Amino acid sequence: MRIGVIGTGYVGLVTGTCLAEMGNDVVCQDIDEAKIRRLLAGEMPIYEPGLAELVQRNHRDGRLHFSTDVKDVTRDREIIYIAVGTPPDDDGSADRQYVLAAARGVANNIQGPMTVIVKSTVPVGTCDMVQRCIDEALKTRGVSHRVEVVSNPEFLKEGKAVSDFMRPDRIVVGVRSEAVKDQIHRLYEPFVRNGHPLLMMDVRSSEMTKYAANVMLATRISLVNEMARICDAVGADIMNVRRGIGTDSRIGMQFLYAGVGYGGSCFPKDVKALSTLAVESGCQAEILEAVERVNRGQKMFLATQIRRHFDGDVRGKRIALWGLAFKPETDDIREAPALTIIKRLTDDGAHIVAFDPQARPNAEAYFEGTDQVTFVDSPYAALEGADAVALVTEWRIFRSLDFDYVKSLMRSPVFFDGRNQYDIALMREMGFNYHTIGRAA
Fold this sequence. Notes:
CATH topology of the largest domain: Rossmann fold
CATH superfamily of the largest domain: NAD(P)-binding Rossmann-like Domain
Number of domains: 2
Radius of gyration: 24 Å
Distance between the termini: 58 Å
CATH class of the largest domain: Alpha Beta
Order of helices and strands: EHEHHEHEHEHEHEHEHHHHEHEHEEHEHE
Largest sheet: 6 strands, parallel
Helix content: 40-55%
Strand content: 5-15%
């Protein structure tokens, strides 16, 4: 198929590349000229495991193209994806201006029948707005091309986005006509040969499915984090509690890890956006508001532990911090708990020495001009003369370190484990003053 993709962020670039990998002819367009120059040169604007090799191969083989001109992405295409950002607006709602701008660009340039697939995460009703926007622009142009707008939310986990697209748990599509339904079946048939479903439904239910999935996962995280706080208070161990409830087939183990809270580009934004949409629609969003409130508190929890250990005074303390990205296998620091922890501690006078395998450039840009944060090239370099170390992001590199060497580098062997990575008895046997999340037992 001949496919266009507007937007080359995480979703657009992965979508276009994986579609090209299946033999489609794909043009990816973005208004960011620097990003397109990098892609044409084979350089990645983001870190996503496995993506660089696919981009380079499909571009070299002539299936994947890049452009800054919307005319290139509409010329001689059957399907166009809109995969631009929907950042939170001042009131917490999703900002749809970039989606609608992309829709107008499509409508002003298409020359024939077209299916427009909205891949961006958008509030319920956005696809109807996009359809009206396109219809009005076509009417103004005096043309009557058949253009149908389809909802096709993404369910890509950063760090596993390529495998999620190539081998999806399910594909959700909101579609109006049988003709386009058949086209979508042809498009996605190669991706669902593993037996996982291609779920066709109405457009608004498809839009809602994306939000419902993300807020459900965010709710599990906030709930287990609240349980961890209670475990600390009553002397229980959240790891044992997790096993006890996760083996219930109705609950399951996934997203039941206590930690420092969720971050990234999806969960925080989508919880706020759905909560705002609910209120605007005359509904209450009490659970969503609680999920967000718990997560805000959890991001502060590790900093609070550190301050408590130093009797509320961290002025002049040197704190090593392991992990800046909001999760492993990405360089994304958007809404990352590490940012909240660093700000709280530096506001109180601490100096942070941070290491992350991928996110350092983004973090350096974020903290530019802040002399209380230093970045280093290895986990051990962060420890030299440290009064404490905090593990924030559970990269694999942190799993099997030389802890005798770790202790020898530090001024005092105080360890705050924000991901419950290590054995409590072993860490204390090695001489660490070891603090965890919800493992008081």
